[in-house]
Inverse folding.
């Protein structure tokens, strides 16, 4: 099994940290992982993206042009990455701020109202965890228990009290992801 | 009266001066009349007197004193041009209990190595920096130094240093005295017995500061001659130095125990 | 099994420095490797192991701090990125001349000049052909993963001290900025001052009682003596070529074509090979682990066994290809492909180059 993912959106949406949690979860279930962010001028205009690969085998290229899954959180990223999803792959997006929804028919498209749900839960910071929950539902590659383990490992001790909230957000995402 | 022979005179009880064993027996490569040899000897005497022969690491520069390590009988490193303060910084940081000194000329310390000099001084490295200022590049054949006096003739200022064109001489020692990381800053000479005694006292204070763990650099400038580069006889060079160098590069302590001296 | 962590290449390098028992790190910030000194400062290594970490005033100062510290027998290290490494070339020449061990890491970015801050491999010539003045070599090793950013630190020190040679770890912005799973090695204790003194009699850390003083210099004004010094250096380099060459062969058993690559390009090339194999193209990868000494033997073997051609893949205009050609000596086709100036080639582009330049060409 090899899962090649691009997560793309605005800086501040927790794109890079979502990728990091995903990668950590992969480690927790004994898999190989890589996390390669766009850095420098690629990030101009406030966009952020990260390539995450989870695999049972040694990972070759950490940078890719085609992905099994694209998690898309703003219009710029939709424009850039919709056509980078491999045929038969998955595109998961938050419709908030998306003017031109995806049009491809050779991939499966899912929607998650991450921003809206986060606002309803009263904490915009858990937005990325809701989206992560949506991803975990449609691509059950990392197990929830390993995500929690990964969170414990990657978060400083003083933030461990926030883990239950993160877990709630993931559950919320899992429940609310819908096929387009 | 019996004739006195040399054998009768060479006796321990008649000994008035002995070369420190921390100077090697190698013949000095310096020109006759040059101050480097005396400066070397004073440093080595001080290290011997302080009992630090086995705990000292010296850093030699590029310039006339590039071969200082041939003459100084302690562990020595030969640094790239201007980099001695960086080299000495790391040695002292990694061996805080050892005595570390750098020895540099004016081209090395005040031109190509200005950044390393300023920052080692500003960080307050607990090292001794010895700075020999003779206002000229001796090794490469008498070119203009950052410390060359106005109107002074050198191979690259053959009609005299033109301030408008070539800029001003740099008083590095005053400059570093204003940095909070220097603990002791002084300017000395080694051309007369009296000057030598003073210079040695200054060097002893510098090394004692380091041994006592005083915070900051002890910086000793020695204004010296370069009769070859200045194209003078040795005695003439000393006179010229007194009349021209000393008024511009005033001798004496500039900063003692971390406090600037009112001059 | 050691501790598992998800780390950036730069962080792994820094953590490895602490665990390798490094005595002093001297550095100056530059993108894309500033995480190295940031990580070190935040980890308080002076408390963990007693390691000294100092932010120098420039790369020129950092490399000369390595000269001073390494010259006393301590384990010293610095890291930088291309423009900073250029500034260090003078110091590296002196370190090589005075035979002072140390480790330098270059997280390469696009050039020439200020270039950009994206990954590149265009410092190959500088790394393996000298860089500074004079006849000298560095032990040059190229990690291709975050794991190797960690593992190669103690290895680079072992070689550096064994042969009294500066070691250069050459990675790039991709490996520096990427996070992967790392199994951290168990900490190696720092040597005590007494151990350093006993182990390295050449080091200048205070003249031993009753013994001769030590001098570390790269100068000898007598050309005949300097020639003898150079002969000794060349003998040493020959020994390193015999003992320390490292490479990896991936899928080469039935290969008709070989991609030669190192570092991040070798990772990308592995993907290209997977894509090629799906199309029935028999291609394997020779991954260079040491760039100097250059792995000549496997290339010689491929040529002898009638390989159809080599494609060197490098994020440069074609530098490493020259060393491949020196071994091949016209006996097989050798082509280069690479994006550069900070652009990373895609696995598909590499495959296309393989098909067009070697197979179809």
């Amino acid at each position: 099994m090899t899962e090649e993912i691009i997560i793309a959106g605005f800086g501040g949406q927790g794109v890079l940290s979502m990728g990091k949690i995903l990668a950590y979860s992969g480690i927790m279930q004994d898999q190989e992982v890589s996390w390669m962010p766009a850095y420098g001028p690629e990030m101009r205009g406030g966009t952020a993206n990260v390539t995450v690969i989870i695999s049972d085998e040694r990972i070759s290229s950490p940078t890719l042009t085609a992905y099994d899954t694209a998690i898309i959180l703003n219009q710029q990223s939709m424009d850039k990455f919709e056509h980078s999803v491999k045929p038969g792959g998955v595109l998961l997006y938050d419709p908030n701020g998306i003017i031109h929804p995806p049009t491809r028919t050779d991939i499966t498209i899912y929607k998650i109202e991450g921003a809206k749900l986060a606002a309803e839960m009263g904490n915009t910071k858990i937005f990325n965890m809701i989206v992560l929950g949506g991803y975990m539902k449609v691509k059950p590659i990392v197990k929830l228990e390993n995500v929690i383990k990964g969170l414990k490992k990657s978060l400083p001790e003083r933030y461990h009290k926030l883990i239950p909230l993160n877990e709630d957000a993931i559950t919320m995402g899992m429940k609310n992801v819908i096929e387009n | 009266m019996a004739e006195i022979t040399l054998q009768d005179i060479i006796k321990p009880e008649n000994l008035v001066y002995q070369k420190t064993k921390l100077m090697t027996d190698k013949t000095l490569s310096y020109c006759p009349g040059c101050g480097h040899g005396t400066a070397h000897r004073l440093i080595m005497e001080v290290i011997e007197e302080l009992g630090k022969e086995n705990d000292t690491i010296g850093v030699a520069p590029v310039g006339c004193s590039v071969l200082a390590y041939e003459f100084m009988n302690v562990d020595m490193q030969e640094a790239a041009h201007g980099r001695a303060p960086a080299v000495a910084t790391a040695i002292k940081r990694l061996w805080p209990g050892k005595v570390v000194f750098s020895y540099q000329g004016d081209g090395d310390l005040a031109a190509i190595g200005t950044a390393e000099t300023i920052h080692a001084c500003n960080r307050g490295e607990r090292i001794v920096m010895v700075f020999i200022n003779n206002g000229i590049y001796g090794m490469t054949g008498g070119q203009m130094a950052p410390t060359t006096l106005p109107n002074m003739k050198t191979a690259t200022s053959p009609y005299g240093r033109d301030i408008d064109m070539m800029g001003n001489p740099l008083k590095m020692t005053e400059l570093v005295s204003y940095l909070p990381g220097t603990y002791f800053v002084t300017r000395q000479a080694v051309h007369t017995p009296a000057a030598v005694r003073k210079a040695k006292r200054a060097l002893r204070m510098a090394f004692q500061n380091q041994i006592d763990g005083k915070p900051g650099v002890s910086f000793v400038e020695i204004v010296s001659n370069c009769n070859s580069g200045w194209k003078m006889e040795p005695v003439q060079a000393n006179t010229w130095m007194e009349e021209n160098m000393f008024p511009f590069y005033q001798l004496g302590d500039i900063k003692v125990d971390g406090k600037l001296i009112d001059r | 099994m050691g501790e598992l962590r998800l780390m950036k290449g730069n962080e792994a390098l820094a953590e490895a420095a602490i665990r390798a028992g490094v005595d002093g790190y001297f550095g100056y910030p530059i993108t894309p490797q500033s995480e190295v000194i940031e990580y070190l400062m935040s980890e308080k290594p002076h408390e963990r192991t007693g390691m000294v970490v100092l932010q120098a005033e420039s790369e020129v100062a950092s490399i000369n701090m390595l000269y001073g510290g390494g010259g006393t027998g301590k384990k010293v290290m610095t890291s930088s990125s291309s423009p900073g490494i250029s500034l260090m070339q003078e110091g590296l020449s002196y370190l090589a001349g005075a035979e002072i061990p140390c480790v330098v890491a270059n997280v390469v970015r696009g050039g020439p000049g200020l270039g950009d801050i994206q990954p590149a491999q265009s410092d190959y010539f500088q790394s393996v052909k000298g860089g500074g003045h004079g006849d000298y070599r560095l032990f040059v090793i190229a990690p291709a993963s975050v794991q190797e950013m960690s593992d190669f630190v103690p290895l680079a020190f072992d070689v550096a001290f064994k042969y009294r040679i500066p070691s250069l770890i050459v990675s790039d912005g991709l490996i520096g900025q990427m996070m992967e799973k790392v199994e951290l090695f168990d900490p190696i204790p720092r040597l005590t001052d007494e151990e350093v003194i006993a182990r390295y009699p050449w080091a200048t850390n205070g003249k031993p009682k009753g013994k001769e003083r030590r001098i570390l210099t790269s100068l000898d004004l007598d050309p005949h003596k300097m020639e003898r010094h150079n002969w000794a250096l060349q003998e040493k380099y020959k020994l390193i070529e015999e003992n320390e060459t490292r490479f990896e062969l991936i899928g080469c058993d039935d290969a008709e074509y070989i991609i030669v690559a190192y570092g991040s390009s070798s990772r990308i090339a592995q993907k290209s090979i997977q894509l090629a194999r799906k199309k029935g193209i028999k291609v394997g990868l020779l991954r260079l682990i040491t760039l100097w000494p250059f792995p000549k033997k496997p290339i010689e073997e491929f040529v002898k066994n009638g390989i159809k051609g080599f494609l060197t893949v490098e994020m440069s205009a074609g530098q490493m290809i020259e060393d491949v050609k020196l071994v091949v000596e016209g006996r097989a086709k050798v082509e280069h492909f690479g994006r550069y100036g900070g652009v990373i080639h895609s696995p598909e582009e590499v495959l296309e180059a393989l098909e067009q330049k070697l197979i179809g060409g």
Summary: Chain B has one domain: 30-260.
